[in-house]
Specification:
about 270 residues, alpha/beta, Urease, subunit C, domain 1, Rossmann fold, 3 domains, five-stranded mixed beta sheet, 9 helices, elongated
Length: about 270
């Protein structure tokens, strides 16, 4: 078994006190020792003819900084720190702009929150991808996971589970309509089995509402897109005047699969 995780060999190493030709050994993300002919590492890099420098410190950064006029810098903490790392800068010290009426503590807490792990939104089918494209504002390249091309109904919950597996440190929010939910909701069970938290926003439209809207936009009538009984020779088109809806309870279904359910019928209840 290798003694070190990484050994950088034969480089010209700059330290706080000197410039020397030696090897650098790293263990558990920390420089363990400098020296010649060090023991092997799980991974080794030959730095012959190259400089090995400590990570840079940029003490003057404007990252996700909001001006008094409400304008926010284009770089967020994700994009800025990735760019910094590619340039050899491993520590950044950003401004925490304190505006009128704000305490220093409040500003620091807001910056701490902005620099934290980002949430991920997952969606795939119905009218929601179009609405999200126009209305949703994401500040992280990995925070917006939406399928546009094929309207993959049933993808949302399974896709959200995949996102959570790939990035367990992030909060994952799945937005799904009732028709898509009924096609594939069983991965709720898998998420509970694996202990992977998903926040699923299930929208009850009493049917395939976006498909009915698409039909009407083409001058047709929605056919069988609402969860209603067909009685007395009814054709099942959307324009029929009927409140005879099926007793579908999607929240109860999700609860039966093990989900913790919160019912909300108004926007205030959603925010609460």
């Amino acid at each position: 078994m290798s003694e070190y995780d990484l050994v950088i060999r034969n480089g010209t190493v700059a330290t706080a006190a000197d410039i020397v030709s030696c090897d650098v050994a790293i263990k558990d993300g920390v420089v363990a020792t400098l020296g010649k002919d060090l023991a092997g590492g799980t991974r080794e890099i030959d730095a012959t003819g190259r400089l090995v420098l400590p990570g840079g410190i940029d003490s003057h950064c404007h990252i996700e900084q909001r001006s008094s006029a409400g304008v926010v810098c284009a770089d967020d903490f994700y994009s800025a720190t990735v760019a910094a790392a590619f340039g050899g800068t491993t520590t950044v010290i950003p401004f925490a702009a304190q505006h009128r009426g704000q305490s220093l503590r409040q500003v620091v807490e807001e910056y701490h929150e902005a620099a934290g792990p980002k949430d991920v939104l997952v969606c795939a089918a119905g009218a929601m991808p179009g609405d999200l494209h126009k209305l949703w504002r994401t500040r992280d390249p990995k925070g917006y996971h939406v399928e546009y091309g094929y309207s993959c109904m049933g993808y949302e919950i399974a896709g959200g589970l995949g996102v959570k597996l790939a990035a367990p440190e992030r909060e994952v929010y799945v937005m799904v309509g009732d028709g898509s939910y009924l096609m594939l909701s069983s991965e709720i069970v898998t998420s509970i089995q694996e202990g992977l938290k998903l926040t699923i926003v299930l929208v009850d439209n009493r049917g395939y509402n976006s498909i009915g809207s698409l039909s009407r936009s083409l001058g047709l009538d929605g056919f069988g897109t609402l969860y209603r009984y067909r009685r007395n020779g009814s054709l099942g088109v959307d324009s029929e005047e009927s409140e005879d809806y099926l007793p579908v309870d999607l929240a109860a279904n999700a609860e039966s699969l093990g989900a913790k359910v919160i019912r909300a019928t108004t926007i205030d209840e959603v925010r609460a």
